Amino acid sequence: MGLMAQDSETIWARFNVMIVANSIIVAAIVVLLTSRLLLPLVTTILPFVGFIICLMWYLMMHRAFDYQLYLKRSALELEQRYLRPVKTIARGRMFADGNEVTLSVDGRPTKMRMRLLSGLLRAESISYIVVVLFALLYLCVEIQVILN
Q: Helix H segments across the chain?
């Protein structure tokens, strides 16, 4: 579990770095487009650079989430092979999929289910949406710069 937690922290640290990098690029584009400085080469190149960074960001996140999935499935394999009747990983997967799970707390069964809003989008999907939104922003700015 420690390796999965560490890997998760690494994923979100990378995500945060890319958010900051993209925010800086967006801020630079806004400053250039609203200032009196006419730097057409820079205002044309920055959205392109931002789009390329988004592409790398997407690929980096995709690889990281694949590796995290591998770690989860490996932990599940170990749990099933060596830790029966422990069901922490297996039950966690069922819970994440929206199924009801039963835990025994203080000798009493406790039923749990992921709340509706919590299960609508997973963190992985939301992170991809953020990347795509930045990429679309860069494409729109690039088109606007080219048309003007």
A: 2-34, 40-82, 88-96, 116-120, 123-147
